[in-house]
């Protein structure tokens, strides 16, 4: 029971690879009579399933105090891998702006670096609720863009960019307050 959060985290890594494989190799492995819309649906389902594991691994770890060093290191890594796989797929499908993807991923790498610096200086900077909103907007935008049957995915992606950058600024200010 104690390993369930870690199993969910590891499954998100596997699902990230599967997501990218579904997007990139669908036409090579599916017969020609299978409509391409099934690729979009399948990619969206894999992404949503992986996103759900992100919620449950953290919830279970906190609720039952099943935290681990593996979870602390690999949970954020699995999150980044999922978002990266989705964005690479969306760029390949030409459904996402390269600038939006660049800005979101740059913020993710920047905050990861900032967290490493904070941890090395024994600082613990708690994430704000903005981080949850950021994740929610990113997941919603990616799911809609992957599904490809709802309008407005590009608008949601740019809202996600704004919230992502804003939450990055918030985290940066919290970090600098903590080290002073």
TrEMBL record:
Short name of one Pfam family: CDP-OH_P_transf
Q: In which pathway does it act?
A: Phospholipid metabolism; phosphatidylglycerol biosynthesis; phosphatidylglycerol from CDP-diacylglycerol: step 1/2
Any one GO CC term of this protein is: membrane
E.C. no: 2.7.8.5
What reaction does this enzyme carry out catalytically? Answer: a CDP-1,2-diacyl-sn-glycerol + sn-glycerol 3-phosphate = a 1,2-diacyl-sn-glycero-3-phospho-(1'-sn-glycero-3'-phosphate) + CMP + H(+)
Q: Which domain of life is it from?
A: Bacteria
- Give me any GO biological process, just one: glycerophospholipid biosynthetic process
Q: Name one GO molecular function term.
A: CDP-diacylglycerol-glycerol-3-phosphate 3-phosphatidyltransferase activity
Q: What is this protein called?
A: CDP-diacylglycerol--glycerol-3-phosphate 3-phosphatidyltransferase
